[in-house]
Amino acid sequence: MARTLIRGAQVVSVDPVLGVIDDCDILVEGESILEVRPGIDVASAEVIDAGRMIAMPGLINAHIHTWETMLRGLGASWDDGTYFDVLLGRIARHFQPEDIYIGTLMGALNQLDGGCTTILDWCHNTATPEHTDMAIRALEDSGIRAVFGHGTPKPNPEPGEAHFSTLPFPAAEARRLRCGRFADNDSGLVSLALCILGPDYGSLDVNRHDFALARELDLMTSAHVWGGGDWKTPGGYRTLVDEGLMDPRHNAVHANFFDDDLVRLLVDQGASITATPAIEVGVPKPPMIAGVIRAGGKPSIAIDTEIDVAGSMFDCMRSALSLHNAFDSMAAWDPDGAREQVGRPDIDSVPTAGDLWCTPIDALEWATINNARALGLESRTGSLTPGKQADILLVRRDDLNLLPAIDPVQTIVSHAHQGNVDTVLVGGRIMKRHGRLLADNHDLGRLGERLAESCRRIFIVADNMGFSLR
Questions:
Q1: Alpha helix (H) ranges present in 334-374?
Q2: Where exactly are the structural domains of the chain?
Q3: DSSP state for residue 298 in the 8-state scheme
């Protein structure tokens, strides 16, 4: 079995026992991490000199819509109506399977290039089985570790069509995948999850059906939720819990308007809650990090969509930490919620932080081991623990923007970016080396042209419908 020895790295293991180890080696055998300790001596192995690098677990993105990649950078000034009503409601149905393939592939390759080794790809543009199969094929072709989140389209109904909120998850399609290519959902790099409507977007009958289907097929579920009071299922998650529908593998995304009791209800059920802070800045509520901590849970973070924000988990860690601490500081300064302008305070009385102030190691855990837990992959990835899959990231600590890199955790979370990523391994396979993505069998230039062609075609569709996406 092939062996790779990563020699002399400053290891940030995100393992509570191993911690941070200077001048440390990592021995990879096949797909797995065999040893993490200084002074490993083996007779035969491919050696990677990491003496000037930080070794860490591959980053994990717990929620992204890669099929939207061809619209990257267009939506920062969009309002919610453009995204939900125009893109999802009207234009998404005009995406062809090839559009889904190229968007998913390029989105996944960009995640790898940025040091992200695992994603939950929440694909809610699966109009036909061919669309679905092309999305899965793209993930497999990319080489990334992925949970393919099979969602359902959200079109504005045409005359005579039922509203999507009344439509249960297509059981035949779920069974086709679960009994076919995902019959063994615990092997291989790509696994399956059901991305359901949930209580925000689906009726009670739909949720009864969808949770029962997921339990029958032994699959995790994920749902977009806000909790603003306009649940399609009256009572929202409280009703689902009362009916015994909830499963500990459920994942709720956003949840900004959840109160502490509701967050605790989900956490007590074993469910996870994923915040996407950079996307959620338009919501007058903090990202759902503090609430999860108060409930005794483990925060999970993600990017969401590159239509609005950069697809970097380094950026995601920074925005999550900054926004969480900003809201925490506001609570410390003004615990009663009054937002009155006051004069210069006595410096001795100024609070420095609230009760839930977090640090860079917290943010790193959100983006690695906590996200692995949210995706049901904690036993396989998320830390540099012997026995886990060798999902490893090497960051050059002697790059100009990182020097002197005294504290490796703060260096990673506060300063590192995609350009500092030297090497990426997924399941022991080297996907990026010396700062260059090794996209086997992929002509990246041609892939870029195909992405641009898809973008142009979608623009024409939008223009013909009277909508401008530019």
A1: 360-365, 371-374
A2: 3-58+387-437
A3: -
Q: Is residue 395 within a helix (H) or strand (E), and if so which, with residue range?
A: strand 392-396
Q: Which two tokens stand for residue 17?
A: 């026992």
β-strands 250-254, 20-29 pairing: unpaired
| 274 in Cβ contact with 64 (< 8 Å) | no
Q: Tell which residue, 356, 215, 199, 336, has the closest CA to residue 265.
A: 199
Asked if 220 and 249 touch (Cβ cutoff 8 Å), the reply is yes
- Region label for 460, one of left (φ > 0), alpha (ψ between -120 and 50) or beta (otherwise): alpha
- Given CA atoms 166, 306, 58, 450 in this order, what sign does their dihedral have? positive
pTM of the complete model: 0.94
207-226 pLDDT tens trace: 999 999 999 999 999 999 99
Structure tokens at 53: 């690098």
Of 10, 14, 34, 13, nearest in space to 24 by CA: 10
Q: Which helix (H) or strand (E) holds 29?
A: strand 20-29
Could you tell me how many residues make up the chain?
470
Residue 376 CA to residue 441 CA, distance in Å, equals 30
Q: Do the Cβ atoms of 223 and 249 come closer than 8 Å?
A: no
Cβ atoms of residues 37 and 94 within 8 Å? no
Instruction: State both tokens at 376.
Output: 């049901």
List, for residues 350-362, the tens digit of each pLDDT value: 455 567 889 999 9
Question: Hey, what CATH class is 3-58+387-437 in?
Answer: mainly beta
Say yes or no to pLDDT of 344 above 50. Answer: no
**Cα gap 276→256, rounded to integer Å:** 10
To which residue do tokens 């797909």 refer?
Answer: 31
Mean pLDDT of 152-173: 93
Q: Could you tell me if 372 and 378 are in contact, meaning their C-beta atoms sit under 8 angstroms apart?
A: yes
Closest-CA residue to 289 (of 301, 280, 305, 281):
301
Distance CA 358, CA 326 (A): 10
Residue with tokens 């005359």, as numbered in its chain: 159
